[in-house]
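Incident log, structure service

09:12 report received: a user says their structure output differs between two submissions of the same chain.
09:20 pulled the input from the user's history:
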Amino acid sequence: MASLRFLLGMLPATAKFETASDRLRKDYIEFKKFETSDELKHYESLEHEVSLSDFLQKIKNLKALKYKGSNEYHQEQEYLKLLKSKLFAKYQKLSSLKPAEDSDDYKELKDLENSWEIKRIHELEKIIKTDSFQETKKYLSMSSKERYERSEEYKKQQEYEQLKKSNKILWYKNLKKKYPFKEIEQWDLIFEDKFEDSKLDEKVWMTRYLSGDKILKKGYVLADDKHAFTEGKNIELFNKKLRIITRREKGKSLVWNPTHGFYEKEFDFTSDLVSSAKGFRGRYGVYEAKVRLADSGVTQAFSLMTEKILPHVDIFRFEKGKLFTGNFWNGGASVNKSLSSTGGKKFSKDFFIYSLEWQPGILVWKINGLIFKTHKTGIPENEMFMVFSSSLKENAKETGIPSNLEIDWVRVYKKRE
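09:34 re-ran on a clean worker, output below:
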């Protein structure tokens, strides 16, 4: 069943939908890459460190430091007190007199020099005059703010705050919180063709039905076709797009008729198809292509096929002004099918992204991301390949010719295991 938004005609503009989809996939790749980056590891390490109680206590202790009360302060105060002592005054006086060695003053001076007090003064003086003491005194005499701003803890906190507000971290945290990747991370891109070369990739694509190539080494058309397939002559690669052209011109082709077999016939129209049977087949996944249809009498289709007639899935078939999707499977004596359709005029005015999600037990068709059809019966289980075709059928109006089926890109995703 089609989604409510589809039924209400709320199909998003292709450019907007594609830009959002591409942005999301690009964000996912960048997100996963950043998730294991050294930059994020460093940020998370900082975040952890600055939140630890030990780290916060260090800052608290650092701000509480004062020169008064410190070991250096007590050393300086002791030194200053000793300098004011009577003993030191007497020592200075005797030192200035320079007494003779055999005098009582000399003996007293020597006794003073060996005293604990004078030795302590010299010891403290030596300590206080060192650069390290003066630097420590200067550091401890700073304001708590100035001292904190010179610390390693401050540098780490500042770096953390800057990183926390950085565009990259904010982008990462926002995406991590919302995590809009649950759907796309289920799928891996396993095939893509953007048609950027000047020639069709012949390792992937062929311009015949697979059975014609295997049995006849030639192409053929079906009994209800009014055209010859030209095996690539009606295919153009222009402006990074693949174009299949149906035009009015004489052409010969083999025709397959279930009753009469193969026979050659001349037609008044030519057209073409491309098939990935040569180079890419898949079983399950998401198959999608960005395509612009032509408002003409030509039937244009994007299908999944096998080497047999059935099963067959139309991701889209544009015919007689309507857009169809369908699943065809073997019903024994008959062909079982499930078809859905919608008005197709708008699909010829712009590119749209048509996709099929094929999983065991279910097929889901989408256009620009909105569900158009869901089906759970006769689901293919074998490998299939992609076919893009343009065909002018019997009883079709010969209008809008030449007609172009334009394919911007085609992609296949596989469910991640």
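09:41 both user submissions now match this output. Likely a transient worker issue. Closing.
09:42 reviewer note: The two ends are 28 Å apart (CA to CA). The first helix runs from residue 4 to 7.
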